[in-house]
Design goal:
The chain is an alpha/beta fold. It contains nine helices and eleven strands.
């Protein structure tokens, strides 16, 4: 059996505040192979914070500690800023949830994606342009030549999301964190984006962490699923067996999801138990 691409043991992320210390992630432990690992949970459960911690994106005064946080042969806990610059973008990337705050508003889309090629792949200006146009086309942007010369504010939410996905995938990283990558997309484009991510995992052996609220997508797209509550991983299961999950929080999430097959006067609500955080 090959070694995991990513190993995390006892990851903790905390933020000091006037009311004391907020523990955003609590003793999270998991591994990632060259597979699709889903992370689900309510807003505020620690999903995105976990992803940002793995890429060294928790800024001061946030504190990240762990027993182990290793990516391949790299000890992420010992990385300097120079080390992170070599890792982020080329070997590991993250598709942020909202492109409005992730894309540079004063630079054209083509310049931003092409910069990734030139910085991490050593591409010439012409090669970077060709790679950028090909990637924009791959994420089903209808007129990549036009979008190449547009600014982020000129794109719709869905097109901005696709441009962000193109930017993170153009360097073909070994490890990608996708934070709600299909939230602003229609079903057709959503399926195309999932197909692109699936191809990268299957054909290139990329490791993918897929963060989502959509239990249906996670159960059908991912290989394994981590369920987070209050910063803790409360359950792990095979994605295809998500409907058989045993933890009461996971069962409550499944019960609260709307269904076209079941008519209900109102959706179920999640009843929480303080002992889940012990």
């Amino acid at each position: 059996m090959s070694a995991p691409l990513l190993t995390v043991e006892d990851l903790n992320v905390s933020f000091p505040g006037r009311g004391g210390i907020t523990r955003a992630v609590r003793n999270a432990s998991f591994t990632l192979g060259r597979e699709r690992l889903g992370i689900v949970g309510e807003s505020g459960s620690g999903k995105s914070t976990t992803g940002r911690a793995l890429l060294g994106l928790i800024s001061h005064p946030g504190v990240v500690t762990a027993k182990t946080m290793r990516f391949g042969s790299d000890d992420l806990l010992a990385c300097t800023e120079s080390d992170w610059q070599q890792l982020r973008g080329r070997r590991m990337s993250m598709v942020m949830q909202d492109p409005k705050y992730s894309l540079n508003p004063v630079r054209k889309i083509g310049q931003q994606i092409g910069e990734t090629c030139r910085l991490h792949l050593g591409s010439s200006r012409k090669d970077a342009e060709q790679r950028t146009l090909a990637m924009l086309e791959a994420v089903k942007i209808r007129n990549p030549d036009m979008v190449y010369h547009l600014y982020p504010h000129q794109l719709s939410g869905g097109m901005g999301q696709r441009a962000m996905i193109a930017m993170m995938l153009v360097a073909e990283p070994d490890f990608l964190i996708a934070d709600e990558p299909t939230s602003a997309l229609d079903v057709t484009v959503q399926n195309e984006v999932l197909r692109i991510l699936d191809d990268l995992v299957r054909d290139r052996g990329m490791g993918l962490i897929f963060i989502s609220h959509n239990l249906t997508i996670v159960s059908s797209f991912c290989d394994r699923v981590l369920i987070m509550y209050g910063g803790k991983i409360v359950e792990e299961c095979a994605a295809k067996d998500l409907h058989k999950a045993r933890h009461p929080y996971t069962r409550a999430l499944i019960a609260a999801a709307p269904s076209l097959d079941v008519q209900r006067a109102e959706l179920a609500t999640v009843t929480r138990d303080p002992e889940w955080l012990l």
